[in-house]
Amino acid sequence: MIESGKHLEYIFGAYGLSALLIVLLSIWVVLSYKKQKNRLDTLKAMGLKRRSERTQIKPE
Amino acid sequence: MTESKSQEPTPQDLGFFSRIAHPGYFLEWSRYFIWPLVGIAAILMAYGLYLAFFNSPADYQQGETVRIMYVHVPSAWLSQFCYAIMAAAAIGSLVWRHPLADVSAKAAAPLGATFTAIALITGALWGAPTWGTFWEWDGRMTSTLIMLFIYLGIIALWRTFEDQVRAGRIIAVITLVGAINVPIIKFSVDWWNTLHQPASVFRLDGPTMPPSILLPLFVMFFAFSFLFLLLHFISMRTEILRRRARAIERQYAQQLRTQKP
């Protein structure tokens, strides 16, 4: 169990900053994914497909 | 014996590893790993934090600040592990020109930079009360700071080139040159007289710490590793989608140009 008053500011500072960076990174990773997914969905909705998808006969 | 086919091989004709590394198949199979990885990382992180704060003793020398190590060590490990992945991917890009290798390398760079930054910040916050200084230009710290700059340089390079295939080649060469820094970081504590302590976990004669401190360290180590794997998978999926969208947009632009009278 942690004892108070023993460099607590450094310990919580380290955990707090790490958590902040990890949360920001995770949000950025998820938002980037959603952005690209929406971009591709919009293109597909416009009827645009990749050349390979247009010509390829889908294997069973 | 398999018959020779005149047409191009479909992913079904490829070997196991070629199949799982095919970008289209990667998108297929990796989606089933996302939520399990979220669960595993969250459980390990919760258990690790519980052990770190409530169920581990203070160190006899470091006191309570030993708890910073449970974030510092896994971040520092990921900083180097991530670079090792990028270096392996660089070989994949250069030797086999594999598209997924480029995707993996590009997706890993921001993750590596973040974990390197966390390692440096937590190290400084541990050093201040323990050593009496936030920073010292010793071998381990300087080489880790250089690692952060290498990561930032690679991220900047990926954003510099419009043609991502060309970027992949150039960055792969630079990544392999930068890989020299990984053993320098690892052995800096043995080669030079550093303020940073020598290795105490990954040693030939075993770790030099009691189980009460080793257990939270290992749980957090796996929590961070699974978190990294999760973020890397999502980022790789993002990059594949981005390349597909870009390819469609380029084809469309070309089509428009040729249709012009």
TrEMBL record, chain A:
GO CC aspect terms: plasma membrane
Pfam families in UniProt: CcmD
GO biological process: cytochrome complex assembly; heme transport
Function: Required for the export of heme to the periplasm for the biogenesis of c-type cytochromes.
Topological category with respect to the lipid bilayer: Single-pass membrane protein
Top-rank taxon, per record: Bacteria
Assigned protein family: Belongs to the CcmD/CycX/HelD family.
Major localization listed first in the record, in broad terms: membrane
Entry's transmembrane regions: 12-31
Keyword match Transmembrane helix: yes
Organism this protein belongs to: Maritalea myrionectae
NCBIfam families named in the record: cytochro_ccmD (TIGR03141)
Keywords: Cell inner membrane, Cell membrane, Cytochrome c-type biogenesis, Membrane, Transmembrane, Transmembrane helix, Transport
Localization per record: Cell inner membrane
Name under which the protein is recorded: Heme exporter protein D
